[in-house]
Amino acid sequence: MLGSTVESVATICWGSDSPVARAKTDAQTGPEVSIVIPCLNEERTLGACIDKALAAFAAAGIAGEVVVADNGSTDRSVDIAEQHGARVAHAGVKGYGSALRKGIEEARGDFIVLGDADGSHDFSETPRFVAKWREGYEFVAGNRFQGEIKAQAMPWHHKYLGTPFLSGLLHLFFGAGVGDINCGMRGMTRELGQRLDFRTTGMEFASESLIKAAKAGARMAEVPITMWPDGRGRPPHLRPFRDGWRHLRFILLSAPNWLFLVPGGFLVALGIGLVLWLLPGLRFAGKVGLDVHTMALGMMLALVGVHIISIGLFVKVFSYTEKLSRNQVSLARLLKQIRLEHGLLLGATLVLAGFVGDAVVFWQWAVSGFGQVHAVRAVFFCSLALFLGVEVVFSSVFLSMLGISRDTYIGDKI
Questions:
Q1: Fewest CB atoms within 10 A around its CB: which of 208, 359, 385, 398?
Q2: Rg over CA atoms, the chain
Q3: How far apart are the C-alpha atoms of 271 and 293, rounded to whole Å?
Q4: Percent of the chain beyond pLDDT 90?
């Protein structure tokens, strides 16, 4: 009854071309563009956001719909959404990312624009995203720094520290080429949204969507937008340090090369380098003498480095077999060429060499009556080979187990 009254009033004021009437018509014929607005107790600003979105559709001649992804509001947000002509989808799991995932799932348009309900995003700028989509881009990110940030719309530590740092990190690790990782206004094709299979439920959804789009090789573009101070009249849901850490954590976990392989490789090179450098005897670094104690440190660094690399390979293979990472062509080729037997052979060779070396030293020590051990450097060197071999053997077995997919083992020819 209330919905019919609102529609009648809108028709009198706007005529048959009112935003509500257009929304109803688009819902019947099938929208071209969907705007998804996550919502949790946003009754003060939600109606104006929906009106701007529908007005933008009308002005640009876009067949569109507005989907409000409610995240358990206890105020009048749901009623307001329906009164203003939006369709409401209810997210069963709490969280910003959960609401967006539900909205994307319920959206019927070929292109989906995401934006917040607090009034900070200007939905009259939606046609900019649609224009990029029509140029052939699959993912379009808003950039507040290229557009305009109104006074007091963004805290200084977000503007000058957090967002630039995370954006730079994302570009370094994934080559995303996006300068505003935290901007909540962005668009993507519905096909891409389904293909990327989003998993996160919190604010880190912003990072996940960009990372997965970049890894999937999606055509990406940016458009300048305006950021306004939010009109909630209450503290925002965003918690800067907690949510910033969640962003950073997700970025690092999505980049095993940088998180595991690079530091692990550095430790291995440093550790083995120290062992080989000190193998002939005492060395001096300036006036500081370095002996077997430093050699022992080199052994520990090398072993820790190999362990870190092993974990990184576990993560990469798991991500590959579970289709969490895409476009890993080099990894796919490597996994098809290297078999479990290769790792076992390498590990067994190192174990055998190390064991034989230690056995020879032990035999010499026993012959001398178990006195002072003079070949300490040889023991360290051979023991390092033995320990590395053990690590390689067991890591190879576990990698092979991780590589089991539905039909094939890692390294088997297909």
A1: 359
A2: 29
A3: 13
A4: 50
